[in-house]
Structure formats: C-alpha cells, structure tokens
Design brief:
The chain has 216 residues and is of the alpha/beta class. The chain is built from six helices and nine strands; from the N terminus they run βαβαβαβαβαββαββ. The chain is 33% helix and 24% strand. It is globular.
C-alpha cells in the first residue's frame, strides 16, 4: 500500500453501479462520523444510467458523472483509463468500489498502488460473485456475513481487511438475510477506511495486519 507522508485528509473516489447505500454511509461518516476529520469524498463515478447513487451524490454536493460501460466498445483497460482520468483530476488517493458491478483491470489497480477497496456480502473466499445470498442459502451455510478487502486482479480475491459474521436462520430468504448483512456492511466499510486513514493497515504476503484493537 502507498504510504502517506502527512496527516491530511484522504481524498476518496467512489465508483458505483446501483443505489449506493454503502456510498451513502461513507458520505455520512465523512460529514459527521468517524471519518469527519480524516477523509473526504471527492467524486462519484457511475457506470449505469438511472442508478440512484447519482442522486445521493447530488444531494450532498459531491461531483458525480456517468461513464456508461454498456456503450464502451474498447478494452477493459481503455474503459478504466477513462475512470483514472477523472479520479486523478480530483486527486483521489483511495478508491472505493461501492456496488460496482464490473471488474477493474490490473492497470487500474497498479495506477492507484493497490489502494482500491471493495465490499462483498459473504465471508470470502466462500460465495464469490453476484448472487452471494442466494448461494449461501442454497448451500445451507449456517453463517454468512460481509468482507471488506483490497482489490486484486481476481474476482473477490484480494487481501481481506475486516469480516463480520451474521447467523443464517432456517427461515431466511434472500430478502431477510440480505438486509441483516447490509447493516454490518454500513459499519464495516467506513471502519476499514478509517483504519487506512490512520495508517493502521499493513499488507504482508496478502495478509492484512492491523495495528491495535478494532471496535465496531
């Protein structure tokens, strides 16, 4: 991970595809929560027309723009170059993927020195992919949860920062399990950003070492 020399506020760039509830929690944390004196959300990029995350950014006076992936005819690297251009314009140091339904290229990850975070609604490495809750229930798992990790070039694979377990009940459906896990997503993602801002995260051989105790 890139080391910051001075304790200035970390500039965050967010990329989303959908409603952006985790994006909203990060905004709230920077405005009046644990990130208030530590980070700012500089810009949101959305790749899907009509996604509500754009309204959330607008309501909080955060610059936001649409770069539609379904109209892009070039390579993944060429698309990511468009994202990089915007994120560099706003001098973003930490990139957060908040419900971004595309893979990012190795070029993108390398450009930001590995400082790209994602959240996934399962306990990785189990139940990767877009249908984690469905897969958990079909498999009969007794626990699920959420994982915040640094992004690498493989799907839902990068170094794990924090995980939170959530019990799975026999009566659960996707509509009941999902919201219980989402409650913890909203707490865990800002906490991981705070740990980054405080320079408490150290990645050694894909293992994230965290200085001190974590309180959620």
């Amino acid at each position: 991970m890139k080391t910051r020399k001075y304790m200035t506020k970390v500039k965050i760039g967010a990329i989303a595809s959908g409603s952006g509830s985790n994006f909203m929690e990060i905004i709230k944390s920077t405005e009046s929560g644990i990130l208030k004196d530590k980070a700012t959300v500089e810009v949101l990029i959305c790749n899907k027309t009509g996604a509500y995350c754009m309204e959330r950014a607008k309501n909080h006076d955060i610059p936001h723009l649409l770069i539609e992936s379904n109209k892009h005819e070039g390579t993944r690297e060429e698309f990511d170059a468009k994202l990089i251009e915007v994120l560099d314009k706003y001098e973003c140091e930490l990139i957060v993927l908040v419900g971004y339904m595309r893979f990012v290229s190795s070029m993108f990850i390398d450009h930001f020195k590995g400082n790209v975070m994602n959240i996934h609604p399962s306990l990785l490495p189990s139940f990767k992919g877009m249908h984690a809750h469905r897969d958990v229930l079909e498999y009969g798992a007794k626990v699920s949860g959420c994982t915040v990790h640094f992004v690498d070039s493989h799907e839902d694979h990068g170094p794990i920062i924090i995980q939170k377990c959530v019990k799975v009940y026999d009566t659960d459906t996707e509509d009941t399990l999902g919201p219980r896990i989402l409650e913890w997503e909203h707490k865990v993602f800002p906490k991981c950003i705070e740990l980054y801002c405080d320079k408490r995260l150290h990645v050694v051989d894909r293992i994230v070492r965290i200085d001190g105790e974590i309180k959620l």
